[in-house]
Amino acid sequence: MTTDGAFGTSDGCEISYTVHPAPGKPKLALIHSLALDRSVWNGVVKELAGRAEILTYDCRGHGRSGRQAGPYTCELFARDLAELLDHLKWPAVIVAGCSMGGCVVQAFAARYPQRTLGACFIDTTAWYGAEAPKQWRERAATGRAKGLGALIDFQVTRWFSDGFRAAQPDTVNALTKIFLANAIDCYEATCEMLGTADLRPLLPCIKSPAAIVVGEEDYATTVDMAKDLNKALPQSTLTVLAGARHITPVERPVDIARQISALLGRGA
Q1: Per-residue exposure over 129-140, b if at least 16 CB sit within 10 Å of its own CB, e if not
Q2: What phi and psi, each to the nearest 5 degrees, are found at residue 15?
């Protein structure tokens, strides 16, 4: 039976979480993508049931967690996870993150190597590029000026392949509702965090087993970005999922679960 809970970080932000118990199994923490919530992991959690004790949670500024004002950093989000693990009395975990969550995993694995038994970087990058600050600020400005609804077409085509959107409209609609429920101040702060993040200097600090997964059609965090991450982490594997786009834990949960399961064995 799952356990839902909430705890307060050292700076007073409430973090809402769910634990899917599996006594005696490896501990796994899953971090979601920008402007979504822990529900993006539902399919993966189902596939991994009984093979790991799984923590899913809503990052600060997202879902049912507190909506403290920015600025945000990947290091702050990593500290939130470390404090949540303290609250749960989990000394060390395998940690996986999608998109924004993958950036947080990089910060966590570098800052807390003794707590990182393995790291899975999904649809993510260490650096979005020189034009990223401008591009992310423009996106946030559109959301503020016109409302988050003005970004929906941009988001759903970025998230999912054409075939998945046609075949799974209910899933797309559910995530659209989550996206629209975001507070614009938090969305803006998170866009700024991602646009200005350069995690490349942290990569040599990551020593745990690692897996990198990317959708073949992902144009948000491209296959080339995943290859760069793979080169910087010689202990990592790289898997490209044919026909998938940017939120592969939703589009391809079986494949993501398979990659995490392999990492569970390497990190045990």
Answers
A1: eeebbeebeebb
A2: -110, 125
Parallel, antiparallel or unpaired: strands 27-31 and 93-98: parallel
Single-letter code of the amino acid located at 82: A
| Helix or strand holding residue 172 (H, E) | helix 169-180
* Secondary structure letter of residue 123 according to DSSP: S
Determine the pLDDT at residue 267: 59
Q: How confident is the model at residue 268 (pLDDT cuts 50, 70, 90)?
A: low
Residue 216, in any domain of the structure: yes
Please give the tally of structural domains in the chain.
1
151-197: pLDDT as tens digits? 999 999 999 999 999 999 999 999 999 999 999 999 999 999 999 99
Would 233 be classed as within a structural domain? yes
Instruction: Write the CATH number for 77.
Output: 3.40.50.1820
In this predicted structure, the answer to whether residue 231 has a pLDDT above a threshold of 80 is: yes
